[in-house]
Amino acid sequence: MKTIQSILLLGFALLLFAGCAKDNYAAPDAGINGTLIDAQTGGSLELSETGLNSNVRMIVNDPAKYPAPSPLPDLVVKSDGTYANSRIFSESYKVFPLARSGPWQYLGDSTKVTIGQGQNPTVNFKVAPYFYISTPTVSTADSSVTFTITKSTVATITNNLSATNNLLILINNYNIVDEAICTNTQGKYYQNQWQTTVTNASLNTPFKANYSFSAMHLPHGTYYLRVAVIGSGSSGKYNYSPVVKITL
């Protein structure tokens, strides 16, 4: 009986050792970071503050080792246009902003970058936002928000302001303001998203939208407001104005 028990214990020990050996994979030993830059102005972009509308894709660039590689999980671009991943393997990659992931057009091609062990290179890209919205001017006296919308002179995609309810006025009680946060529309007691329609005829000239602040039923205090617009060729993604602080 002791012999049988000894054999079983030895077998269990061997299985345990084999299982531990299989877990000894190499850990990610490199990283990458960068920024999406406005190709027209050379400045920063006005993006979703919850990181919902821009991605950068990476694909291993070694046909001999990986003849049909799958892309890595897409890198989410933050509201300031930056992206980063500090846990990737040292390897050669193709890196590019993912088309239709954001309210912009990428006019370039994929960038090939070889990342060595312990390296964390900076790889920037220039993209062309479809629309620009100036910093809104808010008047609580007549419940109005005034701003100007212009089209990109760099993007080649035809993008028209033709749909209905293609413009949002968004308000929040803290400084993260986009349609994912400001979700209460008309008819809600605490309305913080208001829709209207703007057409190409209103481009390049100040546009005044009447907005009923009293309909929000919010107490007096400090709030943050932003305007968003979407075009017919924007792949469902909004361009935004800068955020402004207002007092109601």
Q: Which stretches are low in confidence, meaning pLDDT under 50 for 5 or more residues running? A: none
H/E order of the elements? HEEEEEEEEEEEEEEEEE
Calculate the terminal CA-CA distance, rounded to whole Å: 85 Å
Sheet with most strands: 5 strands, antiparallel
The CATH class label of the largest domain is: Mainly Beta
Report the C-alpha radius of gyration, rounded: 25 Å
Q: Judging by the overall fold, what is the CATH architecture of the largest domain? A: Sandwich
Q: Helical stretch count? A: 1
Strand content: 35-45%
Structural class per helix/strand content?
Answer: mainly beta
Overall mean pLDDT stands at: 88
Helix content: under 10%
Number of strands: 17
User: What is the name of the CATH topology of the largest domain?
Assistant: Immunoglobulin-like
What sort of overall outline do the alpha carbons produce when their principal axes are compared?
elongated
Q: Number of domains in the coordinates?
A: 2
